[in-house]
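In response to reviewer comment 3 from the previous cycle, which asked for concrete evidence that the modeling workflow produces usable outputs, we include below a single protein chain processed end to end. The sequence was submitted unchanged, and the resulting structure tokens are shown without manual editing.
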Amino acid sequence: MNSINRINDGSSTERLQSLDVYRGLIMVALAFNNFGLATTAGEYLKETPGSGFWQAVQYQFSHCEWVGCSFWDMIQPSFMFMVGVSMAYSYVKRHAQGDSWSSMLGHAMVRAIVLCFLGVFLISNGKPATNWSLMNVLTQIGLGYTFLFLLWRKPAWFQLIVAAALLCGTWALYNYLAPSKTELAQLAGDRGVSLEWADEHLAAVGAPWHKNANIGHVIDVWLLNKLPQEKPFEASSGGYQTINFIPSLATMLFGLMCGELLRSRRSPQAKLVWLLIAGSIGIALGLAWHWQGCPIVKRLWTPSWALFSTGICCLILMILYGVIDVAGFRTWCFPLVVVGMNSIAIYVMGMLLRGWTAGALRTHLGPDIFLLAGDKWAPCLQATMVGCCFWLACWWMYRNKIFVRI
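The workflow returned the following structure tokens.
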């Protein structure tokens, strides 16, 4: 990256290596299945349930049951935030190559449709019929992607107003259209929430934000049963909702704004300061809204979660941008860049080939290959070895300049 292309506003279209590294970090965590650490921690906790270390490991490498934030919870918001950052660069490059606005809009619409169907295809793997669910990260990105494009190149103040409207609108939707007890009683099934689980995780949570007892769940029971389902949809086992794409569009929009900041004429030092400010404000506003009754719940993508998680994403991007693109410490990045430049490919491998790859490793290296470090560490060793196979595939693709794009 020795030269910088410029368009008529004077901003840069140079490839942002810190973004590739950030994407690589996230995809390695996914492809390596969190290195099996959550399962390994669970095995140790069976023997020593009071171990603070293993409790912390299990918490950080698992999704929070409801309220809260762990490292594993930051995977999806990082993914969606980076979609916005990438858009700031990719469509400027297309514009510089002569693409018209209408052709770019068409490309965005096609990409949105492909992402939605790819998400459905991947979550249907191993199922007897197509799983018409719209909560997967790819389908969520696809549902919001065209709207994100329509906000591209709009003034920052306008984008901020739209983001605020999306978050405030989501808050109002959950609070003022909350289903009554009668409406909930009419929905099929028990909605996958036991009294014990509710007592433990929902006691301090306002009624509009309860698992599978909110407006998002009501919409899904109506919407998803309009699609060809193997059996009637009753509830999401994890409490995820299709309308999460509305507040998560704000996450992507904040990413787009950060991408435009990094492309701007501002000095690298000023960009770092702005990312620090944006990250700090996002975290502070998310916590403030949480304390005012809108809980930080990733599974519902509550407005407070959107702000809080975006703040963390800004700080991560700030650190990587400062270390890699400003200070120039890049040698260590190569293993992550290899993955970051083929994120779709390794994501698909992780979704489709994890079990097959583990079986192949047992076939060729022996049935006890994952037991070399003992029973408790078998999940960790298996996840790591399988992930390394996926990394080697990405490395081969990188060397041969094969990059999967949508």
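The radius of gyration is 22 Å. We consider this sufficient to address the reviewer's concern, and the full set will be provided in the supplementary archive.
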